[in-house]
Amino acid sequence: MNRKILFIDLDATLLNDDKTVSEGNRKAIQKMLKAGHYIALATGRPVESGRAVARDLGLTLPGCYMVAFNGAVLYDCAADRVLFQRSIPIEVVHEIFEKAKRAGLYVQTYNNTDVLTARHTKELDHYINMSHITYKLADNVLDILEEEPQKVMLIALENKERLVKFQKNNEKWQQGKCNSVFSCKEYLEYCPCGTSKASGVKELARILNMPMDSTIAVGDEQNDIEMIETAHLGIAMKNGIPELKAVADYVTENDNNHDAIAEIIEKYVL
Predict the structure, then answer these.
(1) How far is CA 27 from CA 19, 21, 143, 180, 266, in A?
(2) In what order do the strands lie in the sheet with 114-117?
(3) Minimal CA–CA distance to 228: which of 242, 214, 245?
(4) Terminal alpha carbon distance of the chain
(5) At 225, which helix (H) or strand (E)?
(6) In 17-144, which residue ranges form alpha helices assigned H by DSSP?
(7) What is the pLDDT of residues 183-237, one digit of tens each?
(8) Does the chain have fewer CB atoms within 10 Å around its N or its C terminus?
(9) CATH second-level architecture of 5-86+195-269?
(10) Phi-psi region at 164: left, alpha or beta (left = phi > 0; alpha = psi -120 to 50)
(11) Domain residue ranges of the chain, discontinuous segments joined by +
């Protein structure tokens, strides 16, 4: 058979606005898996948060994978095993936290199971309500960071231009230290050098010994652009940003609240 692997972004792509998965999308995913195709959840979220979605969908069989932390981690959902991982050096993490503090911006990082940040704010509440993972607080986050993390994230719920300014002001500084990308207007994410959802697509295809012409990717935001350019077939959501639609091979007729993933599976996978 001509086995395909479908890389699916989570928020505003697979997930409805209420953070659930529609019955139509659920049935289509199970249908493609029964037909022998593979699926990979491709997200900026940590493994723990993505794993909750995978369990809810029943993605516990061979052929179910996850590209987490914007490509910094590749995870085998069936084997409950990390296949690939890259981290941000501790000294770089420290610098990002210090720069965010001076700019008056909320910042957080992660361990294997928790969000780590310095104080309880509305930004933290917003993120926890979305991701459903636990958190730990410490005046000096590095004191509770057990190993080098895969991501540092800044959040601005109101004046989002502050994040754009922060990224621009630190463009030269980050070269050779880390990557930065927006996963939505409110989230500016710093990840290890050389990692992205696009690198995750290529690395997972290599690990699985699958040709790139078997890859399909779908997303809606800036951190999905490279991924859909890299995949053999790159798809933008109807509700996606214009920059993503401009480089997509196909734009869905339906949005994330109306079974767009089922549309893609029926049209391009089965």
Answers:
(1) 17, 10, 45, 35, 11
(2) 134-137, 114-117, 106-110, 152-155, 187-191, 179-184
(3) 245
(4) 11
(5) helix 225-230
(6) 23-34, 47-57, 90-103, 122-131
(7) 999 999 999 999 999 999 999 999 999 999 999 999 999 999 999 999 999 999 9
(8) N
(9) 3-Layer(aba) Sandwich (3.40)
(10) alpha
(11) 5-86+195-269, 90-191
Half-sphere exposure of 25 (CA within 13 A, CB side): 21
- The single-letter code of the amino acid at 124 is L
96 φ, ψ (degrees, to nearest 5): -65, -45
Phi then psi for 238, rounded to 5 degrees? -55, -35
The closest of 239, 243, 166 to 12, measured between CA atoms, is 239
- Provide the token pair at 91: 């000294």
pTM recorded for the entire structure: 0.93
The domain over range 90-191 is classified in CATH as 3.30.1240.10: yes
Evaluate the CA torsion angle 268, 209, 25, 270 in order and state its sign. Answer: positive
Q: Tell which residue, 49, 51, 187, has the closest CA to residue 124.
A: 187
Cα distances from 110 to residues 15, 60, 129, 157, 206, in angstroms, run 22, 24, 16, 20, 27
